[in-house]
Structure formats: C-alpha cells, structure tokens
Amino acid sequence: MWLEYFEQYLDRVFPRFLSEKPWNYKDDLCMVGAEDLYCATGSESWREPVRRNASFLMDDAGRVANWVPGEHNIDKVSFGKSMRILRDVTGEARWAEGVERAYRILADYPRTVTGNFWHKDIYPDQVWLDGLYMGMPFYAACLTENGEDNWDDILDQFTSAHKLLWDEQLGLYRHANDCSRKMEWADPVTGQSPVVWLRAEGWFLMALADTYEIAKDRTPRAGELCPLLKNALDRLLPYQVADTGMFLQVVDRADLTGNYSETSGSAMVAYALMKGARLGMLPPEYGEKGSRVLDGIRDTYLKKGEQGWELHGICASAGLGPGPDNRTDRTGTPEYYLSEKQMVDNQHGAAACMMAVSEQLRRA
C-alpha cells in the first residue's frame, strides 16, 4: 500500500508541485525520502524521480531556483541535502559545487545572542525548531566530507535550542523563541512562542537522529543527543491519540474543537522512534512504538481515491509573524495553528512518510 502510493506520488504528484512553485525545503524532504527508500530497498527505481526532477532545482548553467544572493535563510541552506544526493547519484561536478555553495552560506550566517543560527533575515534573532533540521544534519555532513572539526558548534546549538524551547512543565518543545523579545507572540520573560506545534517537534526529533548518525563516530559529544531524543520522546508519547495512534496538530490541547491527528508530524515522530532505536540512541522497543505510529497514519489517512492513493490529514504550512506575504493572522495562538489549511498529498506529509516507511522496511 505505502510503496504503491510513493511510486504514484513521485511519478505524478511531486513533479506537479515542482512545476507550480519554485523549489523549497519541502521538496528537499521528498528527495531525501526517495533516497531513503533506495537505501532501504536497494531498488534503483527510487532514484529515477531524483534524476528526473533535478532541473527544477538547478539548471544547466548552475542557477539554483529560489536562491537569492546574500540572503540568509536556513530553509534554503537545506537545498544542499538534495544537491548532495544528486552529486552522489549523477557524479556531476555542478552538484558538488552546489553543496559547497550551500555550505558557504553558513560561513557568515547571522546568529542570535545564544550562538544559534537565526531562522531567516525576515525572522532575525529567532530560533525555530524547524531550523535545526534544515541546518544541522547538512552542516554535520559537510564537516565530515571536508575533514573539519567544528563539532562543538553543532552540539552547542542543540544544547542552546533545548534551553530556549523546552517547556519542562509540559515536557514538550515550543515552536520558536525570539531572543530579542520583540515579537508579539514571544513571552516577555522566556521569549518562547505560546504553542506546541506537532511538526515543529517532529523537525527537532529528526534533526537529533540524523545528526547523531553522522556525528557518532566523529565526536564524543554526539552522545549528548541521545538523552535529548529519549527525554523528548518519553514526554511526548503520553500525548498519543488513542484511536489513531498519532499525535495532534496542537499536541497538548485535546480539548480544542477542531484539533486533529496530523500526518506529517506524526510521521516524523515515527521516523525518530524507529531510527533512534536502529542507531542505539533508544532502547529497541522504541522501534516498535514508531512502527505502530506509522501504521496509525496508514489506517487513518491513506485512502484510495478516483486517481489512486491519497494521503490526508497534512497541515499545509504554519509559521510565526508576517512572513514574506505580510500576513496578520500568524499570531502563534492555538486557534491560528488549527486555522491553517490541510492539504492532501502535501510534500511535508508524503515525504515524512517515505522516510518513516524506509525505517520500517529496515526493521523487517
């Protein structure tokens, strides 16, 4: 069922999205998902969509879609993940150069007073959980490939992000922190945003697992990521929804009308549980917990439509502050997160499920 859906998705749905909007980080997630399926199955068929859609990211002249010279945007650093995959799949020099260009963006990337990369130029002095996934695994892979020893910077940023975003009373991570305390959504004392958004938690959990995989044989400090992952999951699992086995869009507010089991974040949790168990970050039984979350997504939201399989229950997008569209509704309240549209087959959900299914296949 899952593999049939992914074949259909990568053949028809993903290219359609790419033709409609410029390349974005959620497209990188699809490339990573396809590569993970290749690694889990050994079938070259999963790499065909990677080759086929490369021109949407970079043209033959080396122009990268949606890159703006001088812009600092951690989401766009994430393009380097796709470029690394394409470098390894095609052997073409332009993709190797693209990886280096993405890495060079980090060389003078602005930081908050805590030493963390800030999220974007339009979100100065802000640390979002999303950004840890966009930047840290890519940064770690570049250190490895270049033989550089800057692991303390990566581990320090994880440690700092935990301090900035962890809510001990809830046992959950808030979506973002404004270190300047200027944004209306920021708590004047802590700087934290008010809501625990599931996909933000998912981004962070995946960042921990993916970075550990790269760093574990290269720095003794990689072990610091293991208790962060286990503690986060131990505190998150009690919020699991009984009837779906998933987690809610606003994780800790089951009392809210309209709150729903959300696909992308739940798939990210499933991925982190299974990968963390496979890597030895978590006890082996956590892998089974992750597999059950993924099965809950399948049973709840993978549905057969007139054109084939469809994946439902995916939050299309969410953020804080006006953003590039000067929106006035992104206030950070629970009601805001529930007002964002759900989108069938959205890349966040489909790709996160590819990644989680890849981990499930490795368990077989």
From TrEMBL:
Gene Ontology MF, one: hydrolase activity
Biological process, per Gene Ontology: carbohydrate metabolic process
Keyword list, A-Z: Hydrolase
One Pfam family it belongs to: Glyco_hydro_88
PANTHER family cross-referenced by the UniProt entry: UNSATURATED RHAMNOGALACTURONAN HYDROLASE (EUROFUNG)
Name of this chain's protein: Glycosyl hydrolase
The organism of origin for this protein: Faecalibacterium langellae
